[in-house]
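Case study.
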Amino acid sequence: MRACEIFQAHATPPAQDLPHPQTTIRAGISGFPSPAEDYVGRTLDLNERLVKRPSATFFMTVTGDSMEGFGIQDGDTLVVDRSVNAKPGHILVALVDGEVIVKRYEILGKRPYLCSGNERYAPIPVTDLDCQVWGVVRSVIHEYPV
Amino acid sequence: MSHPMIGLVDCNNFYVSCERVFQPRLEGVPVGVMSNNDGCVIARSSELKTLGVEMGTPAFQLQQWVNQGRIHLLSSNYELYGDMSARVREVLEEFSAGVEPYSIDEMFVRFDGFDAATTLALSRTLYRNVRQFTGIPVCVGVAPTRTLAKLANRAAKKLPEYAGVCVLHGESDETRRLLECTPLGNVWGVGRRLVERLALQGIETAWDLRCADPKTIRRRFSVTLERTARELQGTPCIDMNDTDEPRQRIMTSRSFGRLTGEMSELQEAIRQHAQRGAEKLREQASHARAVLVFLKTNRHRQDLAQYSPSIVAELTEPTDDSRPIVAAAQQALAEIYRPGYRFMKAGVMLLDLVDANREQLSLLDTPDSAADRERSERLMSTLDELNQKMGRGTVRLGVRRHDAAWQLRCAHRTPRWTTQWEELLSAKA
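After joint prediction, the assembly is written out as follows.
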């Protein structure tokens, strides 16, 4: 029998440690701190910073330009947290008429709207639509070509 | 009063639900998930069940409905299901230190030391949170024993008044009413043959068995059934290691004598579990389609780093052969193993079981073991005999098709939305 095919399932994402100097060290004035001291004990983990609740956090890719005004560009990666309850002002991933969209949730004149960050797109009144919140966007990752 | 209670959280139509989280258009329509290798239905949405499609139906029989757009068939995406299962478990672990996966879509959760009202409130929160955080709808059944929790879960699923959450206490009118209308066949661990024998004794419902004298039950039937009777009375006497529901999945797991981070020890444990699992498969004449491997650190040792991963590996074809099963389990272990953690427990689950005799033709694909060869040979000679007697071409080999239809089936696997950067869901801005 042939060997089986392995699919990688939710391996807890490996922590990416970054060296970080301890804040107690005053650099410059009182001479050189020991290089060893610099890196004692403390590292930073981007997962810890961006992913507050791993079980409820999903990544998505942005397509389209309607959210550029909010700093969300085509091709960016969204960090979406389903455990957050949506409030006005949040940027949401929502299901509207079977489509997955990203918009800002706002109340305009006491009515809920899904708003774009681009003048070319008018606010969409939520009440007229089959609309469901999928999750709340906690952060956006924009990678530059380097 | 605060007796220990045990909850069973069961994901509704798990594979289909995983797909629906990322494909809203599949909501409310009949959806089936197929095995990739033999093209049989291995999971159904409730709408597909309503259409009368049974588990194991070959995809080609449904092709017409697919063409007409009446139903959707997807290839299985085990990587996604494994990840979503781990997420559900993680949500449950926020509530309890005692979470035991019972299969890929069912988990036992211990609730200790809460009064009745708190237990109910907690169960409802758990029901809501799993749904909200992961997108997977679940039912929650809570009771003093696993057997009762299983029944409570069934009630939560089937009876609308429970709205997905049912908490049963050992001595209550509610429990009595439920047991009275539960036929024995729906009681955990009571097989069809046993149902017939019990009926001869006038024991037909779960309540009848509960009221029977356990010692008599043991004498006339078995220790296992005696335990079931006691569990129905509210006395816990089944623990995780002897709770097999062999028709659906097989689990073999054990805690290590002491915490270990040694890869060689883990490999040995996983090898043993996989081998034992394969033996159980052969005992009951089943084949497995996928293997789940999990590791657990000790939650009660918060001084140590915690890491309790799980992963699903799909087998190349449904099999009861120990070798591919052990190999798959070892590869899976290598995927999830990280040094620096001390594990308390390791286990192997065999998933998506199918009757071995339902797909014996696939043996022809694997003429490399002595037993297979022997069986293949016998099959071949019968086949030749038939063709000689009845005319050439009467019986032909059902070799797996590598034609367009087969390719198409594989192509229906959805993206691995949660585990591959290249396959993320896109949100329209």
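Observations recorded in class. Helices of chain A lie at 35-38, 46-50. The longest strand of chain A covers residues 131-141. We will return to this complex in the next lecture.
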